[in-house]
Amino acid sequence: MIKVTDLKKTYPGKVPVHALKGVSFEIPSGQFVAIMGPSGSGKSTLLHQLALLDKPTSGQILLDGIDISGLSQGKATDFRLRYLGYVFQEYALIPELNAIENAFLPLMLLGMNRKEFIRVSTELMGRVGLVDRLHHLISELSGGEQQRVAIARALVNKSKILFADEPCANLDTENKGIVLRLLRKLCNDLGQTILMVTHEPEQREFADRVLWFRDGRLVKEEYIGKDVQEDAIHNGYRTDVSSSEK
Amino acid sequence: MWNDLQAALFLFYKYVTRGNKGTSVLTVLVATLAFLQINLISGIFSGALGLIYDQTKNNYVGNIVVQPGKDQWGNKEEYIKQVTELKRKINAIPGIIGCSSRYTIGSVIEYHPDKTGKDIRTVSWPVKSIDPEDEKRISGLHNNMLAGQYLDESDRDQIVMGREISGGYGASLEVQSLKGINIGDEVTIFYHNGTTRKYTLKGIYATAFPLADMNAFVTQKEMESVLGMRDRASEIIIRTDDAYPEAYYIQELRKAGVELPDIRPWQDFIGLVLGLAQTFDIIKRIVLFIGLVVAGVTIFIVIFIATISRKKQIGIMKAIGMKEGIIVASYIMLSLFYAVVGIGIGLAVLEFVATPYFIAHPLDFPVGKTSLLIVRGEVATSIICMLAVSIIAGFIPSWRVSRENIIKAIWG
Ligand SMILES: Nc1ncnc2c1ncn2[C@@H]1O[C@H](COP(=O)(O)OP(=O)(O)O)[C@@H](O)[C@H]1O
Ligand SMILES: [Mg+2]
Fold first, then answer.
1. Would you say B79 and B233 are in contact if contact means Cβ atoms under 8 Å apart?
2. B298 and B234 housed in the same domain
C-alpha cells in the first residue's frame, strides 16, 4: 500500500521549479495505476520520489507503512533492491550482460545462490514470454523484448511495487500491446501493484485506476470499468485483422 | 560483503569477456610496455653496475682489503706483521675462498726503447708484489694475460704489467705509461728504499677495468729480497664466496682474531663507481616514475571513458539497488586486470625474450659486455607500484561517476 500526503518537490535553481505542489493519494496493494498528464506535469518527478531515486522537498510517503523519506542513502539503495522494481523508458539494460543475466542481477545482489536465482529468473523470463531469448545479448533483442527483460528484472526480487515510466514510449504498436497486456496479466496473476506513467490515453485502459496530473497537482481520478479494460486487453494495440475490423 | 564481491567479480568478468576487446588489448599492451621499459632499463643498469662490481672484486681489490693498522701509540704502521699466521686465520673462516698478501712500494720504472739512451721513458708508480699461486685464488690476473706469461713462484727478475703501465694494447688512460714496451724488453726499477733492480717484461695483462690495469707486479720472493724483510705485507686481498655481505665476513675476521689491521670492504675503494651507481639509481627511479605514470594514466583514461560513457547505465544499476561500492570494485578489478595481464606478459617477455636476447647479444660497455641483470627486489617493487597505481587509476574515475546523483546520471 502506498500513502502519499501533501508531497511537494521543488527543483532548486535560479528559477526554482515547483514540479509537485502538494499531492496526496492512496493506492491499495494489487492495483494497476496509470499516471497521466501533459508533458511537464510532474509525472516522472512523482515516480522518482516514490521509487526513492530522489528526495522530496516536503510531504510524506508511506510504503507499506514505512516512511521512506527518512531513509539514509544506503538504506534507500537496499530498499530499492528488496522491495521496488523500476522500468525505464529505454536503454536500461546492461549491454555486457545477456538477457537472463540482466534479469537475475538483483537476485545476485541479494545473495541468492546461483542455482536458485537461475531458476527464479528463468521462470520469470517465461512469464514475460522470453524463454527462448535467455542467452541473447541485449543488442540482439528488439525494443519490446528489451522492455520485457527490464520488467523481468524489476520483478525478479518479488517487488512490492513496480514503477514504469512510459515503458512503451519507444515501442511500435505491436510491442506496446505486448508490454501492456503483460503488465495487466502480472497484476491479475500475481497481484502486482503497478504505477505506470503514460501520456497515451489508450494505454490507461489497461489499468484499474488513473491519476491525472496537471502542473504539479493531482487534478482528477478515474476508475476504468471492467468492460473497457476487457476491451483493451482483447483489442488494444492490435495490428492484426480483428483490430482493423473494429 | 561476500555477495558484493561476487557481484563485482561477475560484472568485471562480463566487462572483460563481452566488452571491447581492442581496448583491452591496447591497454594491456601499454601496461606491458611500461613494465618492460621500467625493468629493461633497470636490468641494463644493474647489469652494468654488476659488471663493474665484479670487475672490482675480481681484478682490483677483491671483496675485502686488509691494511696495516695503528701501533700502540696510534701511528699508522707501514706493514702488516705476522702475515703467515694472519693468512692462516683468514683462510680458516668458512666462506672465504682465499687471500693474497702484497707488498707495495713507490718506485720509478725506467725503460730505454733503444740502446742509444736518447729515448728514456719513465713512470713513477708503486710496484706491487704477489704470491703467484695465492693470487690465482683471489683474482683473474693469471687469466687476463694479453701477451707473454704470468709470473711463476720462483721468478726473480721478471715483471708483469697492466696495459695502462706498459702502454699499447688498447690502453685507454695511459696517464703513467711506458708508451709501448714489448715482452722480453728490460726495465730498471728505482725503488724508494734506494734499491735498484733490472727486470725483464714477462707479461702484459688487461682487465675490463682500467684502474686494475695500472699495476706492475713482481713476485713476493723478489720483493722480500728488495725490502729485506719477511712475513709482512702492505695489504691482504680477500675473496669470499659472496654468500653474505662483506660486513659479515669482516665481523668474522674480527672474531677470528684479525684485530690490529684495518679491514675494509671493496666498496670503500670505488667512490667514483658508487657515485655512478647513485646516478643510475636516480635514473632508475625516474624511469619507474615515468613508466608508472604512463601505465596509470592510460588505465585511468580507459576506465574514465568506460565509466563516463556508461554513466547512465551506472545510474540504472544504482537505481535497481546496486551499491556504489560494487560498481567501483568492478572497475578496480578491471584496471587491476589490465595491470596484472600486462605485468604477466611483461614478465614472460623479460624471462623468455629479453634475457635470452641480451645473453645472445650482450651490450658492449667500456667495462665489458653485459646482459640484463634482473634484480628480483626491483621487479617486485615495479609490480607492487604498478598494481597500486592501477587500483588508484580504476578507483578515481569509477568513484566519481558512481557517486553521482541517480537522476542526474540517468537523465542528464
Ligand atoms: N532535475 C530537474 N531539475 C530541474 N527541473 C526539473 C528536473 N526534472 C524535471 N524538472 C522540471 O519539473 C517539471 C516536471 O517534470 P517531469 O516530472 O519530468 O514531468 P513529466 O514527466 O510529467 O513530463 C518540468 O517543468 C521539468 O522541466
Ligand atoms: Mg516524464
1. yes
2. no
